[in-house]
Design a protein that fits this description.
Low-confidence stretches: none
Distance between the termini: 28 Å
Order of helices and strands: HEHHEEHHEEEEHHH
Radius of gyration: 16 Å
Strand content: 15-25%
Structural class: alpha+beta
Largest sheet: 7 strands, antiparallel
Length: 193
């Protein structure tokens, strides 16, 4: 499944070669499917010129500086305040690792503590609104399934729309990753009931 997703990302986006400098040690703490993704490519972008925020961008970072930049504007004291100000769990906690971005304000985090009941769960931070909320529950395969489903629809749209019109078509179809998430999460809740 990872190989197929990688090929889809490559078609209209870009994937960078896997990391070669020590991140492998941390990969052992990743949910298995995410570990497979990071071993294949260190950054996954659904579109070229994403600037790490447009479209779907996946690239795990264990660097606390990135977390502090997103949550607290590079201020370590503010990062601690974020942790105290938001209900737990929240992304300022050590076990939450930066996963990627889906807009210039919306960032995703994944729980990378194998002993946590949240291991593999994802959270979303909307930095300009001070929001830190559950995205999808564990296991990570739920998030992966959503990526696969979104990518299928995204690929269909990109194949049928001219290169200079696909972004407008995505807006008209309300097909951003976050818009797709709302439908996906709602369908999961209805299915579980």
């Amino acid at each position: 499944r990872v190989e197929k997703l990688w090929a889809q990302f490559q078609m209209f986006g870009e994937c960078e070669p896997p990391s070669s400098h020590g991140d492998e040690i941390h990969f052992n703490n990743l949910p298995p499917r995410l570990q497979q993704m990071m071993e294949k490519s260190k950054h996954w972008h659904s579109q070229t010129k994403s600037y790490d925020v447009f479209g779907l961008n996946i690239g795990v970072s264990f660097d606390n500086i990135i977390k502090a930049r997103i949550l607290a504007g590079d201020d370590q004291d503010e990062l601690q305040e974020w942790k105290e100000r938001h209900s737990q769990p929240n992304c300022a906690m050590e076990e939450w690792t930066y996963l990627g971005a889906v807009s210039e304000y919306d960032y995703l985090f994944v729980n990378t503590n194998p002993s946590s009941r949240y291991f593999g769960a994802t959270r979303r931070v909307t930095s300009n609104c001070d929001e830190d909320e559950e995205f999808l529950p564990a296991p990570f395969d739920i998030f992966f399934e959503m990526m696969e489903e979104w990518m299928e629809q995204y690929m269909d749209l990109r194949k049928r729309e001219p290169e200079d019109e696909w972004e407008e078509a995505m807006d008209e179809c309300e097909m951003s990753f976050l818009q797709f998430y709302r439908t996906f999460a709602s369908n999961r809740r209805n299915y579980s009931s």
